[in-house]
Amino acid sequence: MEDERDHDTISSSLPSLSKQLTGTTLGGSADVPVVDLSVSDEDFLLHEVVKASEEWGIFQVVNHGIPEELMRQLQVVGKQFFDLPEAEKEIVAKDGDFEGYKRKYLGGINNWDQHLFHRLSPPSIINYKYWPKNPLQYREVTEEYTKHIKRLTEKILGWLSKGLGLPREAFTQSIGGETSEYVLRVNFYPPTQDSELVIGAAAHSDMGAIALLLPNEVPGLQAFKDEQWLDLNYINSAVVVIIGDQLMRMTNGRFKNVLHRAKTDKKKLRISWPVFVAPRADMSVGPLPELTGDENPPKFETLIYNDYIDQKIKGWALEDLPVY
């Protein structure tokens, strides 16, 4: 989704694609699938989310059950935090872990990096020292949003599982069930006159299983499909669903781990709230036996999730990060 952890820590920037993307078309409007979750025909719903995951690796959901007022409150407290003086934001600054507040340009690429990052769930991994105490409503609003986003994530994973002929809980359990890790990153992209040159988040796929992103009204998220970058159209109150590396690997490549990035805007502030869902670091993740066989042998090695992360990071050192 727009960024998972720091580019030097946990998101998959896919440097091996840098040559492949040279000369591709920049821009265009994307008819990214939009799935209405209020439909009563579950078979139709299963078909739609599976098709979107196979063909795009990204889709938007509407009528998803998260109250619009709660989404608005999350956006308000997020913006209020970034409006604070720098010294006050630095109270929750990073101090070695990936969690906390950070503001800088990433070296080597025109990539604006200002964000707030912290764990949401399970409770055993939460460190509240990285949660802002100002605005006062930040914790209450974020905890309530976490309840709803977890419920929606489990529904979507259930539909994706059933759509492939698996038990409803297959994907949820394969990433740890109640121990699956949910992490929020609030991305802050101030306006810039060089919006065609400054990328808010460089091209990457998400390391984890799935991400659910709430944008503000300013477009900027792009997906790479059919050899071009396509803009996602903003839909009021929609949530963007992004398939990550681990769902791609568990389905033996049937689902796409979409390559995506974020652009800044020349005149308007852009903020986004992706929630990343990943297995525990000690979990083994690979193609599910039910989705492989003699005619469809495993394409990916089963790896401890933390080892997968380490391998990806080591791969970055072999090539320069792509510049877009």
Structure in words:
This protein is α+β, with helices and mostly antiparallel strands and 324 residues long. 25% of the residues lie in helices and 26% in strands. The protein is built from seven helices and 15 strands. The strands form three sheets. An eight-stranded mixed beta sheet has the order 2-3-11-8-13-6-5-4. Helix 1 crosses helix 4 (138-163) and helix 2 (68-82) crosses helix 4 (138-163). It starts with 24 loop residues before the first strand and ends in an 8-residue tail after the last helix. The model is unreliable at 3-26 and 319-324 (pLDDT under 50).
Spans of 5+ residues with little confidence (pLDDT < 50)?
Answer: 3-26, 319-324
What would the principal axes of the Cα set say about the shape? globular
Which series of helices and strands comes N to C? EEHEHHEEHHEEEEEEHEEEEH
Distance between the termini: 17 Å
